[in-house]
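Box S2. Input/output pair 1.
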Amino acid sequence: MNDALVIAGKSYASRLLVGTGKYRDFAETRAAIDASGAEIVTVAIRRTNIGQNPDEPNLLDVLPPGRFTILPNTAGCYSADDAVRTLRLARELLDGHALVKLEVLGDPQTLFPNMPETLKAAETLVKDGFEVMVYCSDDPIQAKMLEEIGCVAVMPLASLIGSGMGILNPWNLRLIIDNAKVPVIVDAGVGTASDAAIAMELGCDGVLMNTAIAAAREPVRMAGAMKKAVEAGREAFLAGRMPRKLYSADPSSPTAGLIGS
């Protein structure tokens, strides 16, 4: 825990956050999450039963809140009102749980965030006592606005949800990171382990993913790969990469004092 991720005052050893959708069954869900080492798991309240449907299998039986930090999210919400209502339900189902992930979508084709509605919902939720982690566009100005509203983490997309396209705009991410006083967690678009490593090398505090693991040919193995990638990327960031030098060779071995010279 020497380099813990701290969100809303709580420390986490893992910087990989994972979703719980799209797996074959609950057994695969748990196996993949165990392999990932994730401590925070996000749950779509409108799509997954965590107690609102007592006659159906309950995800919390597989991922008990005593073992994992459950992060209810508003996937499938297209207005601030729907998102706020969904998270108030989640708080009731989880006995007053305050940490939530807000996402307000703009359209069903791209799942790009509707930022005016996101800002509106964030303001309401923060005033209502929620600790809001928020999915947002990679706009540095709007990310800063969300931080100033009181969100405990900003979560800019790397590329569209479920696209697997990786980080399309590293420059905007760096602008967000350099100006943020809360954790910056890449959310959406990661496709494979190298994408996760790049996000961490840029200086992101964490990475959240679901499809990249669940849609892999072997989800459990991919979860393990993502764990390693996030750890390696963080270590590389802390170590500090060598400077890039165009057209300037610098041999690894000394050129002076060569044998026979």
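Box S3. Input/output pair 2.
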Amino acid sequence: MAKKKKYYVVWQGNDTGVFDSWAKCQVQIKGYPNAKYKSFPTKEEAEQAYRSGTAADFIGQNKKPTIKKISAKAREKIVWKSIAVDAACSGNPGALEYRGVDTKTSVEIFRQGPYKKGTNNIGEFLALVHALALLKKEGKPDLPIYSDSRIAIGWVKKKRANTSIKKTRTNAFLFQLMERAEVWLNNNAVTNPILKWETKEWGEIPADFGRK
């Protein structure tokens, strides 16, 4: 049986637009850091997606949870009514993104980036503070937040991003974001439980970008 034809939208790549084959899409994303693209079943849907929104509006919205098959006993340990955060970095340092999702459904709640010359630890830290600030604004002081980064959790507890990378013109804005995050932590009580996602036991965190 012949495979159904798909159409591909490239929002960030060597060239952007709607492409009618995976081969043509690959040309646009190959070698492009943090390329943003997604397939659609019809040309009409692809064109509408390209015209009406950005990659963040479509990528990750229907992504299924990445949780591997685990025992019922292990599943009981997960607090499903929560937010999960994660970061992705192309290089170290490199182009950095972070996001937060609903732990149970993997529906994306927020996404930021890419930022130049960052690290994964910085992204994990910013994601946690972003989630904390968002939940405070929404009046949800008790909703847990999952992170798979012990380092980022430690930075939040100490209210300081203890990064070793140097501030340059290229990543100056990223340092501004870290400074704002530290100020927020020092001026707001952290009431939301920050929980460690046990990757070895549960699989990749639902907010994982899937780029490993």
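Caption for Box S3: The longest helix spans residues 120-137. The chain has a mean pLDDT of 85.
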